[in-house]
Design brief:
Length: about 550
């Protein structure tokens, strides 16, 4: 067996270690559930909502949907590309991933094995959100099974290609950072600068996308951007007149896009496998910084002032430990950028002169509620990866104090609340300017985003209390994110079951969706408080 195949198996074993006795059955069940969702339940669910919207704006629905898909693919490519760079900080904090170094092995085998091992699980992500794309296109033309396959393969190839480029850049940067302290400092600066550049790119696309698409010269240059290879193939499969370059021969157009979308990624994958020793390091690097006790800055003084005296010391300590890890700072920037992009995608797709008379007040409110919901979920999922209980020793230390281990959990909840508050203020300011929101809508966004983020983060904290991973098992924190996402799916379907039987047929569609999301918020809040209570009971019994 090739060594890279052993690495793939090793990656799968690591991610399914909790189910090692029934690993094959677990993988079959998980894929069966996601395939059922991706090919039947998901499209059917979203068809109920999107079909009503399509009926209300029949003349503009096609152009809006096409614009949404093109912009979504463009943004998705950048988001996935930057993710391995964000994850580089985590490798710095917990050390390099486990490797099979007992036998001679080339860097190319490890690189290829880790890449393919992760793609097996990333395909579940495609099956998770793919039904939204399918439902959008299903209103233009009823899709068949073959078109479903084309859409999912296009999305998967886009994700794989973007992730491959991001992985190469991350490993190249890591390789440079192992050479010297200067290179490491430059690497950190580059990561922060890159995140700012990506945010700027999203907002540039927001304002210049229509100009680019309307100019034939600029449109030709878009052929160099990988996301359009895949979005063009999907749109061509629905209706050849929907592609960006319909002046070209349709057959030449689709063959060129398919060729680029397949040959370029596989060529880069082959070259990266053969030349991995030039950018991939087996050593990895670990941050070993000396922290000097110096006078507290203004930020910590502010935290002390706004915090009740009983919790000042604990919360300040929590913040210091949190901000010492560069991964966390980059994570906050990444989350803010991601939520901003999602808001831009939504408003960019719906912002159309012909929609001015389409219940615009409800439309603005709908955008605010959706962005709050999705943003809260993203914050909970990504911040849930932070392991705030480092070791059993810390738990026992808090147990021996008068306030007990609850003090550790409550102080972290306080810290999360402050982080959400800071991020919320920035996002509210950005969206108010971007969406031209009135004060009432800005206030609604501020409140709903705050509540969504907080209750979903409570779920992640409760899960960590119920089953602490500690720092040495931090690489398995993604299981917390999976659990949080599962709870959101369950609460959303419960909201549908509660709302649909009592909804009047004459109700406005956007208003109905808002009611569903608010019911979902109430249900997920109930889950959150239940999980945090059970988690606190469990961690107090830890021995």
């Amino acid at each position: 067996m090739s060594l890279w195949k052993k690495i793939v198996k090793h990656e799968i074993r690591l991610k399914t270690y909790r189910y090692r006795k029934n690993r094959a059955l677990f993988m079959v069940v998980i894929y069966a559930i996601f395939l059922y969702w991706g090919f039947y339940l998901g499209p059917s669910t979203f068809d109920i909502i999107i079909s009503n919207i399509a009926q209300d704006i029949p003349s503009e629905y096609v152009s809006i949907s096409v614009k949404f898909i093109e912009y979504f693919f463009t943004s998705f490519f950048l988001i996935i590309l930057i993710y391995p760079l964000y994850n580089l900080y985590r490798k710095a904090e917990i050390g390099h991933s486990e490797m099979l170094l007992a036998s001679p092995i080339k860097p190319g085998d490890i690189f290829l094995g880790e890449f393919l091992g992760k793609l097996i699980f990333y395909f579940l992500l495609i099956l998770g959100f793919g039904p939204v794309i399918i439902s959008l296109l299903n209103q233009i033309q009823t899709l068949n099974f073959f078109q479903y396959i084309v859409i999912y393969l296009s999305l998967f190839m886009l994700l794989a290609f973007s992730f491959l480029i991001g992985l190469i850049l991350a490993n190249l940067l890591e390789n440079k950072m192992t050479k010297s302290t200067v290179a490491k400092d430059l690497g950190k600066t580059f990561l922060l600068l890159l995140s700012i550049i990506v945010i700027a790119l999203f907002y540039m696309l927001r304002f210049f996308f229509d100009i680019i698409l309307s100019n034939p010269v600029y449109r030709m240059w878009l052929m160099l951007y990988p996301s359009f290879w895949y979005s063009n193939v999907i749109l061509f499969g629905i209706d050849p007149s929907l592609n960006l370059f319909n002046a070209l021969s349709n057959y030449v157009f689709v063959i060129a896009n398919i060729s680029l979308g397949i040959i370029i990624p596989f060529l880069i994958l082959y070259l990266s496998y053969k030349k991995a020793d030039t950018f991939y390091t087996l050593e990895g690097y670990t941050e070993n910084e000396v922290f000097i006790n110096k006078k507290e800055g203004r930020f910590y003084k502010l935290i002390r002032k706004i915090t009740p005296q009983k919790w000042r010391g604990l919360i300040t300590t929590q913040f210091k430990q949190f901000l010492r890890k560069k991964e966390n700072l980059f994570k906050i920037i990444y989350i803010g950028a991601l939520i901003s992009v999602i808001g831009v995608i939504i408003i960019f797709s719906l912002e159309n002169p012909t929609l001015a008379g389409y219940d615009i007040l409800n439309l603005k409110l709908l955008v605010v509620i959706i962005v709050s919901w999705v943003g809260g979920l993203l914050f909970g999922v990504l911040m849930g990866l932070h392991i705030f209980i480092d070791s059993k020793q810390i738990v026992f230390q808090y147990k021996s104090t008068p306030r007990g281990v609850k003090a550790l959990v409550y102080s972290y909840i306080y810290e999360v609340f402050y982080l959400i508050l800071i991020l919320n203020i920035l996002l509210t300011f950005i969206f108010t300017l971007l969406f031209h929101l009135e004060i009432i809508y800005s206030l609604i966004f501020f409140i709903t985003f705050m509540v969504y983020c907080f209750v979903i983060q409570l779920q992640a904290i409760g899960v960590q209390c119920f089953n602490p991973l500690f720092e040495e098992r931090g690489k398995h924190a993604y299981l917390i994110s999976y659990f949080v996402i599962l709870l959101q799916v369950v609460s959303f379907f419960l909201a549908l079951i509660i709302f649909i039987p009592f909804a009047p047929e004459t109700m406005n569609n956007s208003l109905g969706l808002m009611y569903i999301l608010l019911i979902n918020l109430a249900i997920t809040s109930g889950f959150s408080f239940l999980i945090i209570l059970l988690g606190l009971r469990k961690i107090q019994k830890l021995e």
